[in-house]
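Problem statement: downstream parser choked on a complex file, so we are re-checking the raw output for the iron/sulfur cluster run. The parser issue turned out to be on our end (a line-ending mismatch), but while we're here, posting the original submission so the record is complete.
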Amino acid sequence: MALYGGMCADQGRPSVRSKTYWNKNQRGADPFEMPKRVAKGIEACRSHMDEDGTVARPLRYIWIYVTEAGLLQNSKQSSSKDLLGLDGWLNVIDESASMGAEWMVVYVGASLSQVPYLWEVCAWAQDIHQLSVGLHLTSNCLSEDDLERLGRLVPEKTYLIADKAHLASLRFLESKGIRLCEANVQDMERDTHCTKPGEIACVGADGSLFSCGLVLGDERYAMGDCRDRSLDDVKNDESLPHAVPDTSAFPHSGCDACPPLMAMRVLENEAP
Ligand code: SF4
């Protein structure tokens, strides 16, 4: 079976129309869960808009670390908090999308299959909120199941983000319609005083919020927990670190897969 050329809902690709997908993949879930979530999202959108319909403080990117591995890059101890489950991640997406997010980068670490609800999270972002989704994989290991599930996502809104060292061995995916994007960020590509965190909602596996992925797990850049405060509240709290004043104090590899840089790279690569 082709990965996705011409695939329709009854072949498995989840879509807004595919109620059975959500019912099947969330066994025993409330059948009204999706319409209720959509209504909640619309209401949230309204609450973030000014009277003229513009969003006061736009957020453009979501950067989520669905495994604890990301947090441990900058913090030696594993979190004592509960990890966000599927519902928690869908809430993050709903809230971010209501604030204007258009792009999402999902850090999964070495293996896509270690996160059982990864595909539901991606499908929700694409089907309900029309977000572009980049999956940041730190290996070149993909199972047949990974390929099949990648193929069910919306092709023109799906990117596999990988280190340069792995790109050559992943090029075969392009013939199946899967787009690739190099994750590595060079020193000259980032500003010394970086203000891009102001446009990013960066969320760790345990719900902790940080300025961006470069400083994920670094308490100096902690911004609370997405289960305790709304993202809107966090983004408008001027006392929090919405910028990284001196990126040179951190290795440039810490900026790998940064959503605004990846979005720019993709747009440049796809420019006619
Ligand atoms: S990861 Fe780097 S480039 Fe991206 S927002 Fe953070 S400091 Fe800036």
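For whoever reads this later: The radius of gyration is 18 Å.
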